[in-house]
Amino acid sequence: METTRRDILLGGLAAAAACAAPAAARAAKPSWFDGVATDHGVTYRRTNFAVVDPRWRRQLVRYRSAEPPGVVVVDTRNHFLYLVFENQTALRYGVGVGKEGFQWFGRARIDRKAVWPAWTPPAEMRRRNPKLPEHMPGGPDNPLGPRALYLAANGRDTGYRLHGTTDPSSIGRDASSGCIRLFPEDIIDLYQRCPVGAEVLVLPHIAARAAG
């Protein structure tokens, strides 16, 4: 059978496509999400922890601290949040923290808690980004995520929160306007463990002494 130029061209294109397909599959980045979950009637994207660096996953660790059990310690330098337990242990969470110039450090208390909180961006934040809404109801697209723990100091709202995020890639980075971000699954867990009145200590430059 005679081989034509058209046959040769089509054969070459098929071979190129066959080689390119595996390369494209290898180059595709895994998704940060692996399905959906439902919480209090709200369906949200579930974090794919298979692609999360193991150090940012929630885990029980050895932790030396002068703080009593029940205190939340945020190590902004190393992007960890510790819920202090007894016997020099803590439950450690990976977090995203404030960008340079937006951080807040010190002691506060959890003044109130909210499930699927609404978000009202501060005026200064809207000045920096006029595209932000004046107000956003709670839900799967709200940047506060499924829970928020509101921090107060000296009887006043600090304006900062411990909350979830819709951007799991921000965990482990200086990415926020001062709030402390956790994976949605982690803020749900922390919300259940921390009562109103629990103390929160946000450290400025002290590296946590932890192993595990």
TrEMBL record:
Signal peptide (UniProt feature, chain positions): 1-27
Keywords assigned: Acyltransferase, Cell shape, Cell wall biogenesis/degradation, Glycosyltransferase, Hydrolase, Peptidoglycan synthesis, Signal, Transferase
InterPro entries in UniProt: LD-transpeptidase, LD_TPept_cat_dom, TAT_signal, Transpep_catalytic_dom
Enzyme Commission no: 2.3.2.-
Gene3D superfamilies: L,D-transpeptidase catalytic domain-like
Enzyme class: transferase
MF-aspect GO terms: acyltransferase activity
Pathway entry: Cell wall biogenesis; peptidoglycan biosynthesis
Residues that span the membrane, as ranges: none
Domain of life (superkingdom): Bacteria
Family of this protein: Belongs to the YkuD family.
Name recorded for this polypeptide: L,D-transpeptidase
